[in-house]
C-alpha cells in the first residue's frame, strides 16, 4: 500500500530561494504549495517574540549583537533581506504575530524554540498562541526537551515535537518515556531508518525529519513513509509528491 503523502514543511520559509525566516520566505513557500512552515523564535529585550534562527543578528541582517539585548524597534530597523539578494532589501525580522497574520490556519506552523534558558519565552509564547487562537494548529519543537515538556505542562492542548540529532537507540521508547504526550519526532534525516519510522507511525507518532533537500534524499524519506519533511525547497518536494 502506498503511504499517505507526506506534509511539505518549508524550513525557515523557502530558505533555499529567499532570506530565511522573513515574511518574503514564508510568502514564497506558501505560493509553492507548502502545507507547513518551520521557523525559529527568540525573545527580545522588551519581551516580543521574533522569528530568527541565530541568537544574534549578525549573519541574517545588517545589524549585529544579541537579540535578547535589543528592543523590537531596534531589531526591526535592520535589513533582513539584502544579504540574500537585492530584490529582498527591506525585509525585516518579523514578529511571530506578524507571521500569524500572513499564514492561514490551515497551514501547520512548526515553532522551534531556541534559547529557552530564561524560561520567559514559554509564557510569552503561550499567551500569544491563546490570544490569536493558534494553540491547536501549531507544533512546538525544540532540541531542549525540558523546555517543550514545560510548555506542554503549561498548555496541554499544545502539540509538542522532539528535535534530535543523535542516533537514538529507540526513539519511540524515548518519546513514550515522557510524562506528557509527545506528538511528533523531528530527527536529523541522516539518522533515520525505515524501521524507526514504521514503529513511530504505528504508535501514532508523526515523523518530521529535517532538513532534506536533494531529490534523492526526499524520495528516500518518502519511501520510508515519513509523515512530513522539513525542506529548504518546498517547490522541489511538491513536484515529487505530485508525481506519486
Ligand atoms: O526544526 C528543524 C531544524 O530547523 C532544526 O535545526 O538548526 O535548522 O534550526 P536548525
Ligand atoms: Ca529550526
UniProtKB/TrEMBL annotation:
GO terms for biological process: lipid metabolic process. Pfam families: GDPD (PF03009). One of its GO terms (molecular function) is phosphoric diester hydrolase activity. Residues 6-241 form the GP-PDE domain. This is Glycerophosphodiester phosphodiesterase. It comes from Paenibacillus xerothermodurans.
Amino acid at each position: 500500500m502506498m503511504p499517505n503523502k507526506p506534509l511539505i514543511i518549508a524550513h525557515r520559509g523557502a530558505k533555499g530561494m529567499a532570506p530565511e525566516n522573513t515574511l518574503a520566505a514564508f510568502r514564497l513557500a506558501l505560493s509553492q504549495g507548502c502545507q507547513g512552515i518551520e521557523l525559529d523564535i527568540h525573545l527580545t529585550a522588551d519581551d516580543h517574540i521574533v522569528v530568527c534562527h541565530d541568537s544574534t543578528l549578525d549573519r541574517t541582517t545588517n545589524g549585529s549583537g544579541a537579540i535578547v539585548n535589543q528592543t523590537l524597534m531596534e531589531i526591526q530597523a535592520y535589513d533582513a533581506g539584502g544579504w540574500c539578494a537585492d530584490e529582498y532589501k527591506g525585509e525585516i525580522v518579523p514578529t511571530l504575530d506578524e507571521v500569524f497574520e500572513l499564514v492561514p490556519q490551515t497551514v501547520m506552523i512548526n515553532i522551534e524554540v531556541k534559547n529557552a534558558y530564561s524560561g520567559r519565552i514559554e509564557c510569552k509564547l503561550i499567551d500569544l498562541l491563546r490570544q490569536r487562537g493558534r494553540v491547536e494548529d501549531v507544533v512546538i519543537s525544540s532540541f531542549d526537551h525540558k523546555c517543550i515538556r514545560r510548555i506542554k505542562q503549561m498548555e496541554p492542548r499544545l502539540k509538542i515535537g522532539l528535535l534530535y540529532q543523535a542516533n537514538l537507540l529507540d526513539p519511540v521508547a524515548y518519546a513514550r518515556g515522557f510524562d506528557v504526550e509527545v506528538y511528533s519526532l523531528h530527527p536529523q534525516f541522516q539518522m533515520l531508518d525505515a524501521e524507526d519510522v514504521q514503529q513511530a507511525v504505528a504508535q501514532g507518532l508523526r515523523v518530521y525529519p529535517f532538513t532534506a533537500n536533494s531529490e534523492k534524499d526526499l524520495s528516500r524519506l518518502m519511501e520510508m513513509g515519513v509523515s512530513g519533511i522539513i525542506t529548504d525547497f518546498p517547490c522541489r518536494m511538491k513536484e515529487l509528491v505530485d508525481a506519486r
